[in-house]
Amino acid sequence: MMRARARDLWAGLGWMTFGAAIAAHATSMPIPRHLGATTITGPGLLPFMLGTGLALLGAILVLRSVRGQAVPGPDDEADPATVSNRRSFAALVLMFGYAAAFALRQPFVLCTVIFIWAFVILFNWREAWGAARLRLVAGALVLALAVGFSVEFVFENLFYVRLP
């Protein structure tokens, strides 16, 4: 449990620093007032909110660690010789593939749907059997379509950011 507390303390301090740096940088972003933007609608608002959120969550992690309420992670109980990195490698391959698709100028919605669909299936396949696998494939597709089209709508119609 002592390892978990120390790990949470350092991770929390890291997240607080990272979040504060993002929030500080966001406040220095130029506001295109000639386009009618204000401080509340400028490009730095979302990064500021995200940075502040990361810093606050880091502070909660530090507070839990100091109080002795750290949550033990899976590596605290597992034998390091039996831990496999296959799932981490699979996630890394999927993420690199997703990024490579954008580098090759592929459409955002299509790439996002394929990425989310594959990710959900890959990491839930072993737990599903028989008809549950069919529901998994269908549910993953519904989730992927909803996320792909929702994200595109939000970025293009609310943030006015063109996606590939």
From TrEMBL:
<keyword id="KW-0812">Transmembrane</keyword>
<dbReference type="InterPro" id="IPR009936">
    <property type="entry name" value="DUF1468"/>
</dbReference>
<protein>
    <recommendedName>
        <fullName>DUF1468 domain-containing protein</fullName>
    </recommendedName>
</protein>
<dbReference type="Pfam" id="PF07331">
    <property type="entry name" value="TctB"/>
</dbReference>
<keyword id="KW-0472">Membrane</keyword>
<feature type="transmembrane region" description="Helical">
    <location>
        <begin position="44"/>
        <end position="63"/>
    </location>
</feature>
<feature type="domain" description="DUF1468">
    <location>
        <begin position="10"/>
        <end position="164"/>
    </location>
</feature>
<feature type="transmembrane region" description="Helical">
    <location>
        <begin position="84"/>
        <end position="101"/>
    </location>
</feature>
<keyword id="KW-1133">Transmembrane helix</keyword>
<feature type="transmembrane region" description="Helical">
    <location>
        <begin position="137"/>
        <end position="155"/>
    </location>
</feature>
<feature type="transmembrane region" description="Helical">
    <location>
        <begin position="107"/>
        <end position="125"/>
    </location>
</feature>
